[in-house]
Amino acid sequence: MLTDKNNGSSITTDIQSLDANYHLHPFTNTGALNKKGARVITKGEGVYIWDSEGNKILDGMAGLWCVNMGYGRQELTDAATQQMSELPFYNTFFQTTHAPVAELAKEIASVTPGDLNHIFFANSGSEAIDTIIRMVRQFWAIKGKPYKSILISRENAYHGSTVGGTSLGGMSGMHKQGAPLLPNIERIRQPYWYGEAGDMSEEEFGIACAAALEEKILAVGPDNVAAFVGEPIQGAGGVIVPPANYWSEIQKVCTKYDVVLAADEVICGFGRTGNWFGSETLGITPDIMSMAKGLSSGYLPIAAVAVGNRIANAFIEHDDDFNHGFTYSGHPVSAAVAIANIKLMKQENIVEYVANDIGPYLQKKLRDMLTDHPLVGHIEGVGLIAGIALVKNKETKEFFPSDLDIGLICRDHCFDNGLIMRAVGSRMVLSPPLIISHAEVDELCEKARLCFDLTLKSVSP
User: Fold this and answer.
1) Cα 416 vs. chain centroid, distance in angstroms?
2) Do β-strands 419-420 and 225-230 pair in parallel, antiparallel, or remain unpaired?
3) Minimal CA–CA distance to 342: which of 297, 393, 307?
4) CA-CA distance, 440 to 182, in Å (whole number)?
5) What is the overall mean pLDDT for the chain?
6) Sequence-ordered list of residues with C-beta below 8 angstroms from that of 224, at least 6 positions apart, any chain
7) In whole angstroms, what is the distance from residue 303 CA to residue 123 CA?
8) Angle at 295 between CA 131 and CA 254, to 5 degrees
9) How confident is the model over 332-388, as pLDDT tens digits?
10) Which residues pair with 41 in a beta bridge?
11) CA 235 to chain centre
12) CA distance 283 to 300
């Protein structure tokens, strides 16, 4: 830890000065942050982090949806140290491989659903999505249908921040910057029942949202559509859990029009929903699947695309290179940590713990402690992921005006009171480490209640 209570302020100021002078933050108004000063995080242990002022904070977001096995796992540190001393790096170009990348591919295939047994490595979820874009388009070209190049995603979807990921995603604020975006991307409505269904039941809304996909396919021409891409549960969009019938209806549409179904599992993967992947929880049978974050519990950057037989065999049997990849695809140290992470999850029965114990406990505790709060309009979630809609009027589902950023107000109260929750517009979202205990869930919910009280007080006349 960098500091103690006696010299914390001095160290904080020094690091903030360096940060302001040299560091450009992602997704940040840098000028405003430099005036305020970034919070300096110095240590992590279990579900907690500490800042340079000595404040202990319960990390309700597992870093950035990723520290699934919690902070300070010596098993992961040891895996990195050992691999670093043996082979710190070699690439997987030039017809070469190494033990960690080959073993990790097998380890991932041991937990992926269906026939998703062929693994392509990248370094981030954004790169995994770029890989899916290129791979599905090349798949159709190999099959003699290069005109099948349109990809369909959803409004308010997040699929990364590269040009490819931004183009595929549905975040309007991102679309305003760095244009022009990639061509041949279409979007349909998101399955946000609480905020957009009106008088429709969840089942009716699920059918309507899936019908939007069929309408879009027909509008652009079925012969032109390469893939539909979606997160099982939209994460950065605010934790939008679709109606129970939504994905089965989407699957039918994709099958009907011979459209590849791609699941973006960057957030939902590796136990968060109570299965190894959200596709299993939501009843999806994808042809191709991206993953990152929880693959290494965020300890080192690594991502992957799991490819089913239909697509993989087309590439394997096609006598040509797939001209795509990254210097660090399958980096040996990252791969070693990911192997150790998956094995640790298996040894500690983490997926079962989320499914049968701590996941149901969190979902019940959130509802028991927060549903009656005047700000809380709706709580949705599965396993250890949850979204909470903050509203001005519970009875009418009236949201706060856009010029009053209720989410950021609440987020700041959380930070000031030892809890990290993320704000997505008017929604507060949670994805704590999968190793969180009952007592720590109780603490999380108590702090959330306090912060909602403070938020309500802040916006009350």
Assistant:
1) 25
2) unpaired
3) 297
4) 44
5) 96
6) 147, 148, 149, 150
7) 5
8) 45
9) 999 999 999 999 999 999 999 999 999 999 999 999 999 999 999 999 999 999 999
10) 51
11) 5
12) 30
Segment 248-301, tens digit of pLDDT: 999 999 999 999 999 999 999 999 999 999 999 999 999 999 999 999 999 999
Provide the b/e sequence for 260-276 (b: ≥16 CB within 10 Å): bbbbbbbbbbbbbbbbb
User: How far from the centroid of its chain's Cα atoms is residue 164's Cα?
Assistant: 17
| Token pair recorded at residue 94 | 């030039």
Question: What is the value of pTM for the model shown?
Answer: 0.95
Q: Is the pLDDT of residue 56 over 50?
A: yes
Q: Report phi then psi at 290, rounded to 5.
A: -95, 150
**Structure tokens given for 175:** 């679309």
Distance of alpha carbon 394 from alpha carbon 72, whole angstroms: 41
Which tokens sit at 366? 């959130």
The residue count for the chain: 461
Give the N- to C-terminal CA distance of the chain in Å, as an integer: 42
Structure tokens at 296: 């290494």
- Please, which residues have CB within 8 angstroms of residue 138's CB and are 6 or more apart in sequence? 315, 322
Question: Exposed, middle or buried by CB within 10 Å (0-12, 13-18, 19+), for 32?
Answer: exposed
119, 292 in Cβ contact below 8 A?
no
Give the pair of three-digit tokens for residue 127.
């790169």
Give the 3-state secondary structure of the chain: CCCCCCCHHHHHHHHHHHHHHHCCCCCCCHHHHHHHCCCCEEEEEECEEEECCCCEEEECCHHHHCCCCCECCHHHHHHHHHHHHHCCCCCCCCCCCCHHHHHHHHHHHCCCCCCCCEEEEECCHHHHHHHHHHHHHHHHHHCCCCCCCEEEEECCCCCCCCHHHHHHCCCHHHHCCCCCCCCCEEEECCCCHHHHCCCCCHHHHHHHHHHHHHHHHHHHCHHHEEEEEECCCECCCCCECCCCCHHHHHHHHHHHCCCEEEEECCCCCCCCCCCCCHHHHHCCCCCEEEECHHHCCCCCCCEEEEECHHHHHHHHHCCCCCCCCCCCCCCHHHHHHHHHHHHHHHHCCHHHHHHHHHHHHHHHHHHHHHCCCCCEEEEEEECCEEEEEECCECCCCECCCCCCCHHHHHHHHHHHCCEECEEECCEEEECCCCCCCHHHHHHHHHHHHHHHHHHHHHHCC
pLDDT tens for residues 427-442?
A: 999 999 999 999 999 9
